[in-house]
Amino acid sequence: MPSIDQSGSFALGGRTVTRLGYGAMQLAGPGVFGPPKDHAAAMTVLRAAVAAGVNHIDTSDFYGPHITNQIIREALSPYPDDLVIVTKIGARRGADASWNKAFAPEELTAAVHDNLRNLGVEVLDVVNLRAMFGVHGPAEGSIEAPLTVLAELQRQGLVRHIGLSNVTATQIAEGRRICDIVCVQNAYNIAHREDDALIDELAREGIAYVPFFPLGGFTPLQSSTLSEVASGLDATPMQVALAWLLRRSPNILLIPGTSSLAHLRENLAAAELTLPDDAVRALEAVAGTV
Ligand SMILES: NC(=O)c1ccc[n+]([C@@H]2O[C@H](COP(=O)([O-])OP(=O)(O)OC[C@H]3O[C@@H](n4cnc5c(N)ncnc54)[C@H](OP(=O)(O)O)[C@@H]3O)[C@@H](O)[C@H]2O)c1
């Protein structure tokens, strides 16, 4: 496995994590629903990530649901001391695999307990409140009520740190008046840069920005510019996309998702890829094109 140390590190949840982490959503079945087609392969990917130095894993109990967390527990428990597992609450899966808002106090409380039980821990390292106001991306709406519930669960000792996901700058400001916010997780990648100003603002505040869909998510990135730059650097387009994010801002932490050991290796090797200035200039053309 490649060394990921060169990706650098950043403070997250009271600890320091390597900036190249791992997103576990791809370990569930198709549509992030039901079991994976190859349970043993999912375990192998998780163990290989941690063996390579990954100490930041992103998950949720609504992946599967429950199944992804159960695989993480089976593969990695007892957990290494330096591992930070970040989960999220605020959604509930329907029997038809739908994603539904779950902001009622009893739903949020049950979600924290589901995560504790399925991950097999007594305290959750970091819990993101995942806002569900917009269909495509963040939309305005007060997060005061659900975040107050989560902050109370933190006071009870069930949650160490709190983050926000799929949120606007206004919601982050509202959240920071209620409790300390250690990370923000929104959709962002080399092609979709709506959060550019927000990332810079969070960097100034020392808050981690954790882009989901760093490789394009359900429609992986495809761009001729990305492919040309990659071939010029003897790298793959996905490695360039990850290296670009690492260079974009020091508070960006990566959680690329994969169910494949070969893709995991490829993604972690992005830590060793330094983009020259002319490549970065060329990559500007990818913004908004994919
Ligand atoms: N807060 C939120 O609302 C939210 C939403 C979505 C995701 N997330 C988190 O963010 C993490 C990352 O997002 P994501 O997994 O949806 O998307 P992603 O990391 O952008 O991309 C994952 C997709 O790219 C493929 N892939 C991965 N590495 C590859 C490579 N080297 N070459 C070619 N294809 C590759 C994966 O397929 P293979 O399995 O075949 O590699 C999968 O289809 C998730 O795992 C989850 O933890 C959070």
TL;DR of this structure?
The protein is an alpha/beta fold and 290 residues long. It has ten helices and eleven strands.
Rounded to the nearest angstrom, the distance between the terminal CA atoms is 30 Å
Please report the number of helical segments: 10
Shape estimate: globular
Q: For the report, how would you describe the main beta sheet?
A: 7 strands, parallel
Would you tell me the structural class of the helices and strands?
alpha/beta
Show unreliable segments. none
Distinct small-molecule ligands in the complex: NADP nicotinamide-adenine-dinucleotide phosphate
User: Order of SSEs, N→C?
Assistant: EEEHEHEEEHEHEHEHEHHHH
Report strand %.
15-25%
Helix percent band: 25-40%
Report the strand count.
11
User: Which strands sit side by side, in order, in the main sheet?
Assistant: 3-4-5-8-9-10-11
Rounded to an integer in angstroms, the radius of gyration calculated over CA atoms is: 18 Å
Rounded mean pLDDT is 96
